[in-house]
Amino acid sequence: MNNRPTRQRDIRNASFDIAGESLWGFQAAMVASATVLVVILRQFGAGRAMIGSITSIETCSVLFPQMLGLYLFRTRARRKVELIAYHYVAIIPFLFLIAWLLQQSPHLSAATVRIGILACWAGFVISCGILMAVWMDWVAGLFEVRFRGTVMGLAFCASSILGTAGGLLSGWSISHGHAAHTYALLYFWSAWIASLSIFLFWFIEDPCRLDCDMAPPSPNSILGIFRESLSDGDFRAFLIGRILTTSGFCILPLIGDYFSSAEGGAVAPGALVSSGASIALGMAVANLGLGRIGDKFGHRLGLIIGIATQILALVLLLFAPGRMVCLPVYFAAGICGGSAFLSHYNMVFETCPHDNRSAHIALANLVIGGCTAFTPILAGLAAAYLGMHLVFAVSLALSVLALAWFLLRVREPRQTAAG
To answer: What was the pLDDT predicted at 375?
Structure first.
């Protein structure tokens, strides 16, 4: 039993959580898939279909392997140690591999480089996906529900603020350096900073009891848990709303390709990456504001705000000159991202009707991912053959439908529980 006073432990845990997330956000923005990866793949000859597949690869790789985490990380008392070690063994090495591929690119064919980089990126997000549900469950268990949203909001706000700096640094480096060498250095330093980020989580004190381990879930018990989760009509309505929302804004890498093209203003690679830093700035604003708003009024409101911002971004893409809206569109995308992470996961936490929160998180992500995984590939093909403006128009229609659905059909879980 931990004898440290609860308040002191909470402050300590919040401090290291915020510090660790901040450094992770910094390194992630240095090699952001929505901008840096798009620029790299374009340099090595990727078309819109391949660039559109980035989001599909990320969705499939992050969401579908999550069930493995329920079996790999079932020992609750050692979960912190296992999660930290897993990052060093199965996640961070992929960043070093991408750095090595880029360093060797003068000696390799363009096809080998772009396929190799995309494969390594897929490996990175697959490894992240395996632990995502368990990691979110672990973090959620560190803090009480009355201030969990605020702590998470502060952590991801700090992460996004440093992410803004990371994106600006990356854009400056690309503008002033030799392309392949600069890209390799960005991934190399990203890997080292990620290593430091995860090391900080070692200092978090886990309040779990030593007797709270769970037996590995059987397939039948998992199906029973899934049925219990899906039996709730409000949870089903929430899933439908998130599917519509995600489908309406699955085009972020394509937005980078659009701005890089003549029709989108032919924004230079360094300028595009620097503008993309406003994604992190938007996420900082969202995480700081939506965490507090969610704690006071419910996280459904945070998702509604995110959808409204998503609609604004798509209207700008459709009706304003490309180069002029690069910064505001990416800033709006950051607000959408903050909503889709912070508000989404807190609503998933609060809709769980049983004590297996990891399985409930995995189910939500599996349903949403299963319905949206291949939408970005279709969007990429449509953009290649029919044009980006049609893709933007369809995305806008889906986003308006998502907003109407959340307003009319999705209930706030806290009000439902109170009722």
So the answer is: 93
Sign for the CA dihedral angle at 372, 279, 392, 48 comes to: negative
Residue whose token pair is 């660790």: 20
Angstrom distances, CA of residue 45 to CA of 109, 110, 118, 187: 11, 7, 13, 20
User: Which residues, 6 or more positions from 416, have their beta carbon under 8 angstroms from its beta carbon?
Assistant: 234
Q: What is the dihedral of CA 115, 120, 126, 127, to 10 degrees?
A: 170
Q: What is the pLDDT of residues 227-261, one digit of tens each?
A: 999 998 999 999 999 999 999 999 999 999 999 99
Q: Counting runs of H as helices and runs of E as strands, what totals does the chain give? A: 20, 0
Digit-coded pLDDT (tens) for 84-111: 999 999 999 999 999 999 999 999 999 9
Write down the H helix ranges in 339-387. 344-350, 357-372, 375-386
- Which helix (DSSP H) or strand (DSSP E) does residue 260 occupy? helix 252-260
φ, ψ of residue 181 to 5 degrees: the values are -65, -40
Contact criterion met (CB below 8 Å) for 188 and 50: no
What is the distance of C-alpha 149 from the center of its chain? 17
For residue 241, give both structure tokens.
């709303």
Pick among 1.10.150.20, 3.20.20.80, 1.20.1250.20, 3.40.50.1100: CATH of 6-205+217-418: 1.20.1250.20
